[in-house]
Amino acid sequence: MNRLSIFLVSMLASLTALADWEVNMPRGVTPTANAAYDLHMLIFYITVVIGIVVFGVMFYSIFHHRKSKGAKPASFHESTTVEIIWTVIPFVILVGMAIPATKTLIMMEDTRNSEITLKVTGYQWMWKYDYVEDDVSFFSKLASDSNEARQLGSKKDVNKVDNYLLNVDNEVVLPTDTKVRILLTASDVIHAWWVPEITGKKDAIPGYINELWVDIKKPGVYRGQCTELCGKDHGFMPIVVRAVPKQEYTKWVSLNQKNRVADKSK
Amino acid sequence: MTGVKSTLIKLSLVVVAMYGFSYALVPIYDKFCEITGLNGKTNQVAYIGNDIQKDNRFVTIKFISNVANSAPLDFEPSVTEMTVQVGKPYNTHYVMKNNSSKQLHTTASPSVTPGKHAEYFKKVECFCFEQQTINAGEVKDLGIQFIIDNELPNNSGDIVLSYTMFDITDNIKETNKL
Amino acid sequence: MSANIDHLKEEHHQPSGLMRWITTTNHKDIGSLYLWFSLLMFFVGGLMALVIRAELFQPGLQFVVPGFFNQMTTMHALIMIFGAVMPAFVGLANWQLPMMIGAPDMALPRLNNWSFWILPFAFTMLLSTLFFESGGPAAGWTLYPPLSLQGGNSMPFVIFSLHLLGASSILGAINVIATILNMRAPGMTLMKMPIFVWTWLITAFLLIASMPVLAGAITMLLTDRFYGTSFFTAAGGGDPVLFQHIFWFFGHPEVYILILPAFGIVSTIIPAFSRKKLFGYDSMVYATASIALLSFIVWAHHMFTVGMPLAGEIFFMFTTMLIAVPTGVKVFNWVATMWKGSMTFETPMLFALAFIILFTIGGFSGLMLAITPADFQYHDTYFVVAHFHYVLVPGAVFAIIAAVYYWLPKWTGKMYNETLGKVHFWMTTIFVNITFFPMHFVGLAGMPRRIPDYAVQFTDFNMIASVGAFGFGLSQLLFVYILFLTLRQPVTAEDKAWDGAEGLEWTLPSPAPYHSFDTPPKVE
């Protein structure tokens, strides 16, 4: 009862309290994130239905076909017809899943007709951003208050740090309603760039270039993390993307062009 | 127990074969990518040929550079973008500066995206075919000459050519020691 | 656990005490060695899991530095996979296969002894790296370069011990195949073999085909680091992604190696306690073989985010989805075995039933992961961690535990305490779900893998998972207590300890004699 009241109060107090109990993927603010979410939910519902059917049959059997209820064992132990049925039906269901999945994948891999290009380079343990056409370039690392609080034995209360572990010194600024092509590479080891509300992730591999595209439909601040083990501070190199209307982006570019912000310090 | 012995011999051969197979995967990987055109690797030796016809299509090429492992190098393309006619040869160059106080040996590794278009990006000359030696403080121009093959599918979109420059001075020293 | 050999000591001048265990070529002794070793490694790996879960109980770093945390995640996986699950299955194979096919022992008894004794040596070496100044391996059990090439002095020792572990598995697999193909009792055709024998036969072929590939991959890592090759560095014309292809070409069959014997165990226990023959025996054999074959063409689903060409992504998505079909067939066959049976719910059956339900849940998350565009969001998050722990813990580990409860009367002649067994079952099952189910949620909500600290919105589910993990660990102490209690019982088990049990082993006395089937039985 206590738990319920606390929950209700915190719900009323601030809707963000629910973020603590978040159980699902965000639907996101780009066509690719939306598509991933929709596919995820579709497959999830299908597996729920299959689960209900299969476990339903199992539980029925567990309750009714028990020796203590006097059940006598039947003697059937094979049936080619049945084997064929329960091979073909799942196969058909899978084909049904594969069609939207393939369409979505093709859509996600089409980076043509992008308006701006952002090159992302992973370092141990920070990111470097280069806006290719707009000539802006900077490093981005974990915000210093997070960095202080996360040290072993820091005695700092992490709950009091603003966006603990998801804040950086220099944010990525991108325009909304613009197809942005993101190029990925790394300087040392494999990293991966991931901002869930904006895009699925892709690896940043030293010596090689990967790409993905985003088209952010809603202005806002979106946070993500490195998602490929890259050494001791893999958990401490987050990503913050601030999506702003095109005019604001243009202003930001002109303020930051050729402005090489603080070089990384080891 | 000859059945056991025969099984033992056959299985041991399979084990050895599978170990060899893992090494064979190295060239298989390359050949597979070459044949199917997958992977994004460009030609590693100079393209020699004059059978590419010019056509009416134009493609935008973007040039990107990277320096690996925070080596003391500046390495940038002289132009970041060129719109080129398919089938016509073009020249461009990258600029590299050695910011350290000693001579360095370097090598560049190219990568193209989208990977499926790598096979149409034919390099006639490329600084990536050889290693470089660059003295302390020196600035070098590193040229490439390329042609876009007219086998390129229509509606291809931009092609990004990226080079990563590696400082391999230590590796060279090690090899020379052996 | 060790069959009575006092009379043999006088007849054959068998060594006793420590020398007996070091020199034994008896499949029952070696089976026991593997099983006890696996239990010990399970607790070692489990302790590492508790270090991980203790640190992840709350955001902020309380106990360990990130570098050590990465050593824990790396070692936890290596120990559990190569030290707990695989040796346990080999131990079960050793104990059961000869008896099930009516053979006196394994085909190559001395090789059998070596295969075991490699393990304690290799694991001592592996674990010792944790005490090096530069620490143990910390690049994940998957050892991706270039990160793994940055490793300290532990690297050659890790690679050497992996080579030894691989060799042990390969030798064991050769032994299994040689035994099954050559030493079956007359009349036991392949399609009359117990299903557990089939699953181990197929597993052994997977081992032979895949473990050498791991050996190649880790040798390439070694030469890249120390001998100037550049398989995996772009500077030398290599590719870090090549390692991933080679590793996962081994790695995917490996995960089927970790589950196929479990399928065999469940396919043995469900019929026994339903008092009904396994439904679709032939189908089960073909399904297992299909899974094994398909396992060689799905590997890149572990690498969907690596930047593969679209054609590759589509191919591997399709083949991975396809492997759900034979797996589903197996689940349906188990349910059909239960259907209209006459079930009782002793501890082995409870674990087998929990396996079916919880492994299937792991299968569902696996199907979700197979969908490439969705995987771009799941990859390298706790959603993957949830998936593989569901298929490995209430999957492989439950099957091993079920097998121990099931065959313990045959091995020892003693019955375990059924009430305590049920308590162990319920505690284990409840805590396993408390530990791993919330991981689906935090993974979907955006928590990456292999991080020692996390953003505060992930706190609540992480706390729950950590509590579950400690509960799960404590529950396994109960299992050890049950085992020791059992060993102190008098010998009371019948030959056919379970009234629905079938198979040649149940025609032998309990405990099974040190040497059994010196003359092969006749099989109709």
Description:
The complex is a heterotrimer of chains A (266), B (178) and C (524). Chain A is α+β, with helices and mostly antiparallel strands and 266 residues long. Chain A is built from five helices and ten strands. Chain A has a five-stranded mixed beta sheet, with no helix packed on it. In chain A, strands 4-10-9-6-7 form a five-stranded mixed beta sheet, covered by helices on one side. Chain A starts with a helix and ends in a 10-residue tail after the last helix. In chain B, 25% of the residues lie in helices and 38% in strands. Chain C is mostly helical and 524 residues long. Chain C is built from 17 helices and no strands. The radius of gyration of chain C is 23 Å and the shape is globular. Chains in contact: A-B, A-C, B-C. At the A-C interface, α2, α3 and β9 of A face α4, α10, α11, α12 and α13 of C.
Largest interface: A-C, 99 and 96 residues
Number of helices of chain A: 5
- Low-confidence runs of chain C: none
Helix and strand sequence of chain A = HHHEEEHEEEEEEEH
Low-pLDDT runs of chain A: 260-266
Question: Which overall shape of chain A is indicated by the principal axes computed on the Cα atoms?
Answer: elongated
Give the helix/strand layout.
The complex is a heterotrimer of chains A (266), B (178) and C (524).
Chain A: H1 2-13, H2 31-64, H3 80-108, E1 116-123, E2 126-131, E3 136-140, H4 144-149, E4 172-175, E5 179-186, E6 191-194, E7 202-204, E8 210-215, E9 220-226, E10 239-244, H5 246-256
Parallel strand pairs in A: 1-5, 4-10
Antiparallel strand pairs in A: 1-2, 2-3, 5-8, 6-7, 6-9, 9-10
Helix pairs in contact in A: 2-3
Chain B: H1 2-36, E1 58-67, E2 73-77, E3 81-85, E4 90-98, E5 104-113, E6 121-126, E7 132-134, E8 139-148, E9 159-167, H2 169-177
Parallel strand pairs in B: 1-9
Antiparallel strand pairs in B: 1-3, 2-4, 4-8, 5-7, 5-9, 6-8
Chain C: H1 6-12, H2 17-23, H3 27-55, H4 66-101, H5 109-128, H6 154-182, H7 195-226, H8 240-257, H9 260-274, H10 281-294, H11 310-322, H12 324-338, H13 347-370, H14 372-378, H15 382-412, H16 418-445, H17 459-487
